[in-house]
Design brief:
The protein is of the alpha/beta class. Helices cover 28% and strands 16% of the residues. Strand 1, helix 1 and strand 2 form a beta-alpha-beta unit.
Length: 202
């Protein structure tokens, strides 16, 4: 099966499919962090190359409800016009991925604010947690699935109680200290989810 993993620099989802015998290629504007088949450039250069499935992780900064405040009061390094332009570009990019002529698609998306919903519609999405797949981590992640079934938990762990030390340890993604690579660490697909995608959708 030919698998395109769009907007992925880590290689995790790509490599999970390759381990199961599929022809998988990751694509991102950044180079891959893990050696393997990777197209560094615009995903629309290769999106019509005969893929059986696409798993995409489009940028969500301007679509997420957690950042809606910036649409009204931009950060110091941006103008309001620039923020809204980035929002419109994010919507356009998401729509283009959704409309790609690939029968089976998974598009990662956040809890969207009302402006994104107005542009993209009230998307039906599955929300999963890494701890459903054997990862001692909290990171609610939404997927719009087109032609694909919901992911089924593979190794559902018992979530620790809030306020405990174990709960704090599981919250490491949200507690990452500031660093140049913080965004990369937080955005990488947990290995358990990548493996579930490959085993269930491959």
């Amino acid at each position: 099966m030919n698998v395109l993993v769009a907007c992925e620099y880590s290689g995790r989802v790509r490599d999970a499919f390759i381990k199961r015998g599929h022809n998988a290629v990751s694509c991102d504007l950044l180079p891959t962090d893990s050696p393997g088949p990777h197209y560094q450039g615009d995903v629309f250069d290769i999106i019509n190359d005969g893929w059986d499935i696409m798993i995409a992780h489009p940028p969500c900064t301007r679509l997420a409800n957690s950042g809606v405040r910036w649409l009204h009061k931009p950060p110091a390094n941006k103008t309001l016009k620039e923020i809204w332009q980035e929002f419109e570009e994010a919507c356009k990019f998401y729509k283009a991925l959704r409309n790609a002529k690939i029968k089976r698609k998974c598009l990662e998306n956040p809890v969207m604010h009302k402006y994104a919903k107005a542009r993209l519609g009230n998307i039906k999405r599955q929300v999963v947690q890494p701890w459903w797949f054997g990862e001692k981590t909290f990171k609610a992640t939404g997927y719009e699935l087109i032609g694909l079934p919901d992911l089924e938990p593979t190794n559902k762990l018992k979530s620790p109680k809030p306020g405990t030390q174990e709960h704090k340890e599981w919250s490491w993604i949200h507690r990452c200290p500031p660093s140049p690579d913080r965004w990369k660490i937080r955005s990488a697909t947990p290995q358990g989810i990548a493996d579930a995608m490959a085993s269930q959708w491959g």
